[in-house]
Structure to design on (412 residues):
């Protein structure tokens, strides 16, 4: 989708879109100032319509970057702002929307499309999808509706051009990102078709993103590295006491990050040494024994670390304003901080976020010959297929199951 209009009209649309996207006044002033400089340059070249070549020629003439490759941090503020403005103008020209904007949550949609988003979330919940999944897919489709609103396209009229145009914005993203977006669009297409919000089905217009057939192999820590990680936490201060309790819950009980974030006082049965929760991801109840060392870590944080605040959540952020972690927090900074302090080399490709401690917990149970049904129960998995992935990393146990080929041939 390429917008055809005069340079002055395009410049006015650029300013209008910045305001519609709720950019701060200072940003709008900077960006429109650079777009006016572009108009001055274009008039000197007798050009009256914006195109990508015009923008790049403007930059190379008025804001040349000499001396080889540089990052934005290496150039002056005026050059940085000029490249920022032209990049956003190119977005608007090609897609009718700022694809690089991080302000999508602040963008007001039409009243009808805002209602559509809320109805879509309710539709997903009714179909049995989890709250977190419904919220994530609703946010993905907010981008789609922003795209339609920006290009003055009604949802009922969406066809192949709009589907392809929207997906083309993200064509340079990772395969995993595209797959998520395509799946979200497919789920949304079912909703708008079943609720008669569209004139004709678009499900057949959504391209497939082929899946990688090989299963994902989870990253697993050695027992020694888990010990080093926990020992690296300075428990002599409130932040350290909090982080030690969080890491203990992940490493020694295999709790998901979302469930740790949501853990509240009422979830802990101190008398019977149990944790009873409704899992954030699945909505299913889960009960786990509370080991003494994990329980004492939580108690130490509550007595000598947790800020005074009227929240049901046990774990709080230690920066102002004091509040619980969001339900979508990955707590990546917690594990990364102590991984660095402990000097643990994770390799170039290994994923060692909080979820990797859950994988490690499951693998350790497998090594200790805990039945798969019990592991599935302790992890809160709905089905056994979710546990199969851990078999791929417990190579020592698998080797013991391997047949000796000489014995096979001897008895053939």
């Amino acid at each position: 989708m390429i917008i055809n209009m005069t340079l002055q009209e395009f410049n006015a649309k650029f300013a209008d879109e910045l305001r519609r996207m709720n950019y701060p006044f200072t940003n709008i002033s900077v960006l429109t100032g650079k777009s006016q400089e572009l108009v001055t340059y274009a008039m000197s070249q007798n050009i009256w319509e914006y195109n990508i070549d015009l923008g790049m020629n403007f930059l190379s003439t008025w804001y040349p970057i000499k001396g080889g490759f540089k990052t934005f941090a290496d150039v002056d503020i005026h050059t940085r702002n000029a490249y920022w403005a032209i990049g956003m103008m190119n977005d608007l020209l090609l897609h009718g929307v700022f694809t690089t904007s991080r302000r999508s949550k602040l963008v007001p949609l039409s009243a009808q499309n805002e209602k559509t988003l809320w109805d879509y979330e309710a539709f997903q919940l009714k179909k049995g999808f989890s709250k977190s999944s419904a919220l994530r897919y609703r946010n993905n489709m907010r981008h789609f509706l922003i795209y339609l609103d920006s290009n003055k396209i009604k949802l009922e009229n969406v066809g192949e051009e709009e589907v392809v145009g929207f997906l083309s914005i993200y064509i340079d993203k990772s395969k995993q990102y595209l797959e998520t977006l395509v799946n979200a669009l497919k789920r949304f297409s079912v909703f708008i078709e079943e609720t008669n919000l569209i004139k004709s089905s678009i499900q057949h217009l959504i391209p497939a993103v082929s899946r990688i057939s090989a299963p994902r192999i989870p990253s697993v820590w050695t027992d020694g590295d888990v010990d080093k990680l926990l020992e690296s936490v300075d428990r002599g201060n409130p932040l350290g006491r909090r982080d030690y309790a969080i890491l203990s819950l992940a490493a020694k009980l295999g709790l998901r990050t979302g469930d740790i974030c949501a853990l509240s006082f009422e979830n802990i049965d101190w008398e019977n040494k149990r944790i009873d929760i409704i899992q954030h991801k699945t909505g299913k109840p889960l009960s786990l024994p509370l080991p003494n060392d994990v329980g004492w870590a939580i108690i130490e944080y509550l007595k000598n670390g947790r800020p005074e605040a009227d929240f049901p959540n046990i774990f709080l952020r230690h920066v102002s304003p004091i509040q619980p972690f969001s339900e979508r927090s990955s707590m990546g900074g917690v594990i990364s901080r102590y991984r660095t302090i402990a000097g643990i080399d994770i390799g170039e490709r290994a994923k060692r976020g909080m979820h990797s401690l859950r994988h490690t917990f499951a693998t350790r149970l497998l090594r200790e010959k805990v039945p798969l049904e019990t592991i599935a129960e302790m992890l809160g998995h709905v089905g056994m297929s979710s546990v199969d992935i851990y078999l791929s990393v417990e190579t020592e146990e698998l080797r013991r199951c391997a047949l000796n080929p000489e014995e096979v041939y001897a008895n053939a």
In short: The chain has 18 helices and three strands. Residues 211-215, 395-412 have pLDDT under 50 and may be disordered. The first strand starts at residue 268 and ends at 269.
